[in-house]
Amino acid sequence: MLEALGIGLSYGATPALRRIDLTLAAGSRTALMGPSGSGKSSLLHCLAGILVPDRGRVMFDGQDLTGLSDRERSALRLRHMGVVFQFGDLVPELTLIENVMLPLQLLGVKRAAARASARDLLGELGVADVADSRTGAVSGGQAQRAAVARALVHEPRVVLADEPTGSLDTVNAEAVLDAMVALSTRMGVALVVVTHDNLVASHLDDLVVLRDGMLDLSAREAVG
Amino acid sequence: MIAAVALGVRLAWGSPGRRVRSLSVLAASAVGTSVLLAVWAIATSRVGSTGAFSDQEVGRLIAGVVAAVALPVVVLAATVGRLSAQLRDRQLANLRLLGLSAAQTRTVAAAEAGLVAVVGTALGAALTVALAWVRGTDLVPSPAACAAVILGLPAVTVAVAVLPQRLDLRRALDRARKSDVRRPSPWRAAPLGVGLVLCLLARRANNDFMITGSEVATVFAGLALVSLGIILVVPVFVRLLADLLARGFSGPTAMVAARRLQAQPAATTRVIAALMVGLFLLVGARSVVVAFEETPQYAAAADHIENGQRAAVTVPAGGLDAARRDVLALPGVRDTFAFPVLTGEVTLGAPGDPVERVPVAALVAGCDELRRFAPAVDGCVDGVVSSLTPRWVPRELGGTGAPDTAALWSGTADAPAAGAVEVPISEARITGTGEGSLDEPTWDIRPLWADLLVPPGTPGVESLTTRADTTLVVVAGPGRDLYQQLDALGLTATTREDIEYYDFVAGMRTVIWTLAAVVLSIGLLTFAVAAGDRAVARRRELTSLLLVGTPPTLLRRAQWLEAALPTALGCVAAIVSGLFAGSTYLQLGSDMGDPPWQQSALLLGIAVLASAAVAGVTVIGVGSRLKAEHIRAE
Ligand SMILES: Nc1ncnc2c1ncn2[C@@H]1O[C@H](COP(=O)(O)OP(=O)(O)OP(=O)(O)O)[C@@H](O)[C@H]1O
Ligand SMILES: [Mg+2]
Questions:
Q1: Cβ atoms of B56 and B155 closer than 8 Å
Q2: Pick from B130, B156, B182: which residue ends a domain?
Q3: Which among B5, B114, B380, B467 is placed 20 to 30 Å from B73, CA to CA?
Q4: B165, B182, B199 — which closes off a domain?
Q5: Residues B239 and B335 grouped into a single domain
């Protein structure tokens, strides 16, 4: 469903990714690991269509992302992808529920229906009680749950998460991750999680390890 | 101390971000300085030199004008000086942590902002003076004005830059934590409401012709409350807009714009308030000038300067041909008309019961001659003496009508120089385009004034006219030098329009429109700066919206809506209240004229379009591509 075909990326003279080939099947659950600076975030940004690789192609359901305009990639991300980053990236001026409603509303769902879906999902994630608070007024864990809800509310094909639990304590991290994995499994959403944490990786089925911008196939086999 | 100053200077130029900030402060001080000095010079030359008012009054007027411009300029300087304030405050706080004292930290901040402001102000002043010199105009600002601006503007910038902002920061934090931003107290709308009600009451009460002291007091109390209320009401107004937007529209654009508006930042609210007060005062002031423009001496002088000059000179019997030749040789003179003018007397009242003997003036001319001179007159009957004056209200309008006869003689003296001639006055009444139900011909035959039109063939009149002085009316193109040219010929105009009065009123009008342009452009510029700065601070929000896949067009639309809505509607509210205040003032007296509807409508249109355009400027960069650095930077 989502494929990287020989992608390479450099920031100026710094090579971040060199010839990465990766295939993610529908409904698969993949952990992306590797030392700091190995290119995990860069790869994730390429898969999400935020960055366009210098070489190679990113294919989504047979469509070449690298050939699309910024606007088309945005539309594709809105429709078929969900993203979660370390600090949630909720819109600070909206309430949690408004943040979760946002993708639905952008896709043309009426406000009342969007609100209902968002509230359901927030309920499942256990943060219905703070749904009407703004992001500044809730804990990091609550905000991160809302971010997970926002990534899943429109039932995308794939959720891309970059250290989604990196700013949380172990207990919270565990809970958020469990919820994310459970929900995406139920919805049949493919999941890619960048993490430094072996515990996190153990919740997922596949493991991809990056080293110096290249796939470390030995590591993959060793764990897988 | 020196180390702190040096650190401040380094900070001002240290990083690319700081350089942009410093350049903004530099540009703002330079622009503010030149605007302030230029308006000061315009006010001095256009209002100060007319001589229509005493030095003291002119001083007050200029002070008012300068204050009106200084306000938006100071707001501009202060807003730019507070750019990226949170970031800077954090950096300055870090200096404190390093061990700098509060005073030292303040010195660092003052040096940083002050140096740049001083350079910018000096640059602006030099530019204005140089430009005025090069163009050779009389609009060179006075040294005193330059000194005041060069010292004052940086002082304000520095003061604002050093202002301790800790309190503000904490409040900002509190605000962010609240799930719903605190609603501004509705009491802020009270002064405006009370002021409007007082004005309405005064308008209701003032249907009669009498103005009582209490009515005047009500109006002025109302006007004062309205102008104060305009400032206070802005947060309530913006909040109301945000709520309406949130309720009325369900789309994500409206939601994002409404939520942002609800969080109304102090900087933009302040700018909108300043803009509104400026426009309100100017539209109000424009109405006050209308009261001046409605006076006859202004209308006559304006006609003189804008449409054509007319002067009447008295030529002694026999000297007419020579005088005419001289006058026609003057540049700009188009035509001359010569009329013998007789003096006389009528008796008003019922026959046999003389109540009053009234002096009259009679123009000796036939109907053709009169029509050639004043094409708009009507009702002239050949061969009879007709009345020209509106003084004698005709019988059909309930007056006593014209007297039956007049005694006429030559010369201007009260008593007849030689025997008076008695002429019958007919019922014929000549009308013109003048005001009032009588359609006075006074305006059409200006600068002459006469009560009667006497045909040259009237018995006994011919003998009088050979001895009488002739009045020569000189008609020239638009301008203001006809009187002086005639003076040089030794011919003195019998009446003169008050051109200085015209200069004063026209000068006031120019100053008001200049101010309106300045207030609008500086106000909107400041708004753009404040909004742009806010957009930079909101990059995180934008990034996160883009991450979801929000189309950039939606973000731009939301930003545009957020900027355009309060400014455009604020301008409309300010101009409409200004007109309301102005018309309330004009209703105080009878015949003070109509408020300047058309010009205000024009200003309103310009303000709305300019707000929309400036809101468009704040959109630049909002919907730009998602950059990976911005995601990482969080
Ligand atoms: N904007 C940038 N400009 C220049 N170099 C960059 C930029 N972003 C990343 N890099 C470099 O690209 C390489 C890969 O970075 P990337 O962020 O993808 O690593 P990462 O595996 O996510 O690291 P971490 O685990 O610390 O988040 C690193 O060498 C990094 O220094
Ligand atoms: Mg990373």
A1: no
A2: B182
A3: B5
A4: B182
A5: no
Please, what is the Cα angle at A164 between A160 and A169, to 5 degrees? Answer: 165
ipTM exceeds 0.85, yes or no: no
SS3 assignment for B380-401: CCCCCCEECCCCCCCHHHCCCC
What is the CATH code for A2-223? 3.40.50.300
Select from A77, A105, A132 the Cβ nearest to the Cβ of B252.
A105
B107 domain-assigned: yes
Give pTM, 2 decimals: 0.68
Give the residue numbers in B contacting A (CB under 8 Å), as ranges. Answer: 176-180, 250-252, 255-256, 259-260, 263, 540-541, 543-552, 554, 625-626, 628, 631-632, 634
Q: Identity (one letter) of the amino acid at B627?
A: K
What pLDDT shows up at residue B505?
76
Q: How many domains does chain B have?
A: 3
Residue the block writes with tokens 């035509």: B335
Give the single-character DSSP code of A8.
E
Among A31-40, B218-227, B376-385, whose mean pLDDT is lowest? Answer: B218-227
* β strands within A62-217, DSSP E: 63-64, 81-84, 158-162, 190-194, 206-211, 214-215
Residues with CB under 6 A from ligand 1: A 11, 14, 16, 34, 36-42; B 629
H or E element: which one contains B517?
helix B499-537
Among chain A residues, the shortest Cα distance to B626 is held by: A50
| Per-residue pLDDT tens over the stretch B558-613 | 888 888 888 898 899 889 988 888 888 777 766 667 788 888 899 999 999 999 99
Q: State whether B1 and B141 are in the same domain.
A: yes
